[in-house]
Amino acid sequence: DFLSVFCLKINHGGTFTTLPKIRYKGSKVNWVDDIDSDIFSIVEVTSMMKELGYENPCMAYYYKKPNTDLDNGLTELAVDKDVCEMLMYVDKFKVIELYIDHYVNKKHVFIQEPLVLGTTSEPNEPDIGSGSESEVDERSRQSSRNGSRSENGSGSGSSSDSGSENGSDGSSGSDSEDSDYFMNEENLIDDVVKENEVFDLQEG
Questions:
Q1: Is the domain of 7 the same as that of 97?
Q2: Is residue 87 classed exposed, middle or buried when 0-12, 13-18 and 19+ CB atoms within 10 A define those classes?
Q3: Are the C-beta atoms of residues 31 and 94 closer than 8 Å to each other?
Q4: Residues 20 and 93 in one domain
Q5: What is the chain's Cα-based Rg?
Q6: CATH number at residue 56
Protein backbone atom coordinates (compact mmCIF):
# COMPACT_ATOMS: atom_id res chain seq x y z
CA ASP A 1 0.00 0.00 0.00
CA PHE A 2 1.50 3.31 -1.09
CA LEU A 3 -0.04 5.20 1.83
CA SER A 4 1.91 3.10 4.33
CA VAL A 5 5.27 3.41 2.58
CA PHE A 6 7.69 6.22 3.38
CA CYS A 7 11.33 7.19 3.10
CA LEU A 8 13.86 7.95 5.86
CA LYS A 9 16.52 10.60 5.39
CA ILE A 10 19.12 9.59 7.99
CA ASN A 11 21.45 12.34 9.19
CA HIS A 12 24.30 10.71 11.10
CA GLY A 13 27.90 11.24 12.23
CA GLY A 14 27.35 14.89 13.16
CA THR A 15 26.84 16.98 16.26
CA PHE A 16 24.10 19.34 17.34
CA THR A 17 24.80 23.01 17.91
CA THR A 18 23.30 24.93 20.80
CA LEU A 19 20.13 26.98 20.97
CA PRO A 20 18.97 29.08 19.28
CA LYS A 21 18.95 27.93 15.64
CA ILE A 22 20.07 24.36 16.24
CA ARG A 23 22.07 22.83 13.41
CA TYR A 24 23.41 19.32 12.86
CA LYS A 25 26.97 19.90 11.66
CA GLY A 26 29.47 17.54 10.12
CA SER A 27 26.87 14.96 9.22
CA LYS A 28 26.52 12.38 6.51
CA VAL A 29 23.22 11.61 4.82
CA ASN A 30 21.85 8.24 3.78
CA TRP A 31 18.46 7.45 2.37
CA VAL A 32 16.35 4.39 3.06
CA ASP A 33 13.44 3.96 0.67
CA ASP A 34 10.27 1.91 0.64
CA ILE A 35 9.87 1.49 4.37
CA ASP A 36 6.64 -0.21 5.35
CA SER A 37 5.07 1.70 8.22
CA ASP A 38 3.13 -1.40 9.29
CA ILE A 39 6.31 -3.17 10.39
CA PHE A 40 8.50 -0.19 11.21
CA SER A 41 9.95 -0.08 14.74
CA ILE A 42 12.98 1.05 16.74
CA VAL A 43 14.58 -2.31 15.96
CA GLU A 44 14.44 -1.40 12.28
CA VAL A 45 16.32 1.84 12.94
CA THR A 46 18.99 0.01 14.95
CA SER A 47 19.47 -2.45 12.08
CA MET A 48 19.84 0.45 9.64
CA MET A 49 22.52 2.02 11.83
CA LYS A 50 24.45 -1.26 12.00
CA GLU A 51 24.41 -1.43 8.21
CA LEU A 52 25.91 2.08 8.20
CA GLY A 53 28.75 0.85 10.43
CA TYR A 54 27.56 1.97 13.86
CA GLU A 55 27.88 -0.87 16.36
CA ASN A 56 27.63 1.32 19.47
CA PRO A 57 24.16 0.83 20.97
CA CYS A 58 24.43 4.06 22.98
CA MET A 59 22.79 6.28 20.40
CA ALA A 60 19.65 8.36 20.50
CA TYR A 61 17.26 8.79 17.59
CA TYR A 62 15.28 11.93 16.79
CA TYR A 63 12.97 12.81 13.95
CA LYS A 64 11.96 16.25 12.76
CA LYS A 65 8.30 16.95 12.41
CA PRO A 66 7.48 18.02 8.84
CA ASN A 67 7.36 21.76 8.11
CA THR A 68 9.24 22.65 11.30
CA ASP A 69 12.83 23.50 12.20
CA LEU A 70 15.17 21.76 14.62
CA ASP A 71 14.43 24.27 17.37
CA ASN A 72 10.73 23.41 17.47
CA GLY A 73 10.22 20.09 15.68
CA LEU A 74 12.96 17.79 16.92
CA THR A 75 11.29 14.86 18.69
CA GLU A 76 12.83 11.82 20.33
CA LEU A 77 12.23 8.42 18.78
CA ALA A 78 12.78 5.95 21.60
CA VAL A 79 9.71 3.78 22.25
CA ASP A 80 6.78 2.37 20.29
CA LYS A 81 4.60 5.31 21.26
CA ASP A 82 7.07 7.67 19.60
CA VAL A 83 7.01 5.52 16.46
CA CYS A 84 3.21 5.66 16.29
CA GLU A 85 3.27 9.45 16.61
CA MET A 86 5.85 9.74 13.84
CA LEU A 87 3.89 7.46 11.49
CA MET A 88 0.90 9.81 11.74
CA TYR A 89 2.76 12.12 9.33
CA VAL A 90 3.46 9.42 6.75
CA ASP A 91 0.10 9.74 5.01
CA LYS A 92 0.89 13.31 3.94
CA PHE A 93 4.67 13.44 4.10
CA LYS A 94 6.60 10.63 2.51
CA VAL A 95 10.04 11.76 3.67
CA ILE A 96 10.84 11.74 7.37
CA GLU A 97 14.15 13.20 8.51
CA LEU A 98 15.97 11.20 11.16
CA TYR A 99 18.86 12.57 13.26
CA ILE A 100 21.29 10.45 15.24
CA ASP A 101 22.76 11.67 18.50
CA HIS A 102 26.08 9.89 19.06
CA TYR A 103 26.78 11.71 22.31
CA VAL A 104 23.94 10.53 24.51
CA ASN A 105 26.00 10.92 27.69
CA LYS A 106 25.74 14.68 27.31
CA LYS A 107 22.60 16.67 27.97
CA HIS A 108 20.84 17.41 24.71
CA VAL A 109 21.03 21.07 23.81
CA PHE A 110 17.59 21.11 22.29
CA ILE A 111 15.74 19.91 25.38
CA GLN A 112 17.62 21.69 28.11
CA GLU A 113 16.26 24.89 29.60
CA PRO A 114 17.92 28.16 28.55
CA LEU A 115 20.56 29.39 30.90
CA VAL A 116 19.73 32.56 32.84
CA LEU A 117 22.82 34.71 32.93
CA GLY A 118 23.42 36.84 35.98
CA THR A 119 25.79 37.59 38.77
CA THR A 120 26.31 34.89 41.32
CA SER A 121 27.13 35.77 44.88
CA GLU A 122 29.90 34.05 46.74
CA PRO A 123 28.79 31.84 49.63
CA ASN A 124 28.65 33.72 52.89
CA GLU A 125 31.38 32.94 55.34
CA PRO A 126 30.25 31.88 58.79
CA ASP A 127 29.59 34.83 61.06
CA ILE A 128 32.03 34.63 63.96
CA GLY A 129 30.95 37.04 66.66
CA SER A 130 29.32 40.35 65.92
CA GLY A 131 30.47 43.86 65.14
CA SER A 132 33.15 45.24 62.86
CA GLU A 133 36.80 44.21 62.86
CA SER A 134 37.79 47.30 64.83
CA GLU A 135 35.21 46.48 67.51
CA VAL A 136 36.48 42.92 67.75
CA ASP A 137 40.08 44.14 68.08
CA GLU A 138 39.05 46.64 70.78
CA ARG A 139 37.29 43.89 72.75
CA SER A 140 40.39 41.69 72.42
CA ARG A 141 42.65 44.45 73.78
CA GLN A 142 40.19 45.19 76.61
CA SER A 143 40.07 41.50 77.52
CA SER A 144 43.87 41.37 77.52
CA ARG A 145 44.09 44.39 79.86
CA ASN A 146 41.51 42.88 82.21
CA GLY A 147 43.51 39.66 82.27
CA SER A 148 46.67 41.56 83.22
CA ARG A 149 44.87 43.31 86.10
CA SER A 150 43.56 40.02 87.45
CA GLU A 151 47.08 38.57 87.34
CA ASN A 152 48.57 41.51 89.30
CA GLY A 153 45.79 41.36 91.93
CA SER A 154 45.33 39.09 94.92
CA GLY A 155 44.31 36.17 92.74
CA SER A 156 40.60 36.27 93.65
CA GLY A 157 37.90 36.17 90.99
CA SER A 158 38.03 34.52 87.57
CA SER A 159 41.37 34.20 85.84
CA SER A 160 42.02 35.02 82.19
CA ASP A 161 42.91 32.46 79.57
CA SER A 162 46.59 33.35 79.71
CA GLY A 163 46.62 32.89 83.47
CA SER A 164 45.03 29.45 83.27
CA GLU A 165 47.50 28.40 80.60
CA ASN A 166 50.55 29.43 82.66
CA GLY A 167 49.44 27.62 85.83
CA SER A 168 47.13 27.99 88.80
CA ASP A 169 49.32 30.65 90.51
CA GLY A 170 48.35 33.18 87.84
CA SER A 171 51.91 34.55 87.59
CA SER A 172 53.80 35.06 84.33
CA GLY A 173 57.40 35.72 83.39
CA SER A 174 56.85 39.48 83.13
CA ASP A 175 55.26 39.58 86.60
CA SER A 176 58.27 37.90 88.19
CA GLU A 177 60.56 40.47 86.61
CA ASP A 178 58.45 43.31 88.04
CA SER A 179 58.49 41.76 91.53
CA ASP A 180 62.28 41.43 91.40
CA TYR A 181 62.55 45.08 90.47
CA PHE A 182 60.47 46.23 93.44
CA MET A 183 62.43 43.99 95.81
CA ASN A 184 65.73 45.46 94.64
CA GLU A 185 64.39 48.97 95.06
CA GLU A 186 63.40 48.25 98.67
CA ASN A 187 66.87 46.88 99.37
CA LEU A 188 68.38 50.11 98.04
CA ILE A 189 66.19 52.20 100.36
CA ASP A 190 67.20 50.06 103.36
CA ASP A 191 70.87 50.52 102.53
CA VAL A 192 70.49 54.31 102.37
CA VAL A 193 68.75 54.38 105.77
CA LYS A 194 71.47 52.26 107.33
CA GLU A 195 74.20 54.54 105.96
CA ASN A 196 72.44 57.60 107.41
CA GLU A 197 72.20 55.95 110.82
CA VAL A 198 75.93 55.14 110.81
CA PHE A 199 76.75 58.69 109.79
CA ASP A 200 74.64 60.12 112.67
CA LEU A 201 76.35 57.85 115.20
CA GLN A 202 79.77 58.96 114.04
CA GLU A 203 78.85 62.63 114.41
CA GLY A 204 77.36 61.99 117.86
A1: yes
A2: middle
A3: no
A4: yes
A5: 46
A6: 3.10.20.90
CA 139 to chain CA mean position, Å: 36
Q: What confidence score (pLDDT) does residue 25 get?
A: 92
Closest to 97 measured CA to CA, from 6, 17, 20, 21: 6
Q: What is the pTM of this model?
A: 0.51
Q: How many CA atoms lie within 13 A of 58 on its CB side?
A: 4
Question: How many domains is the chain partitioned into structurally?
Answer: 2
User: Is there a domain that residue 54 lies in?
Assistant: yes
Task: Indicate whether 78 belongs to any domain.
Answer: yes
Burial grade of 64 (CB within 10 A; 0-12, 13-18, 19 or more): buried
Ordered per-residue pLDDT tens for the chain, 204 residues: 567 899 999 999 999 998 889 999 988 999 999 999 999 999 999 999 999 999 876 889 999 999 999 999 999 999 999 999 999 999 899 999 999 998 765 444 444 333 343 334 444 444 444 454 555 556 656 655 655 554 544 444 444 444 444 444 444 444 444 444 444 544 554 554 455 554 554 555
Is residue 121 in some structural domain? no
Backbone angles phi, psi at 169, to 5 degrees: -75, -15
Q: Could you tell me the residue range of the domain that residue 179 belongs to? A: 148-203
Which of 81, 101, 121 corresponds to the end of one domain?
A: 101
H/E segment holding residue 72: helix 70-73
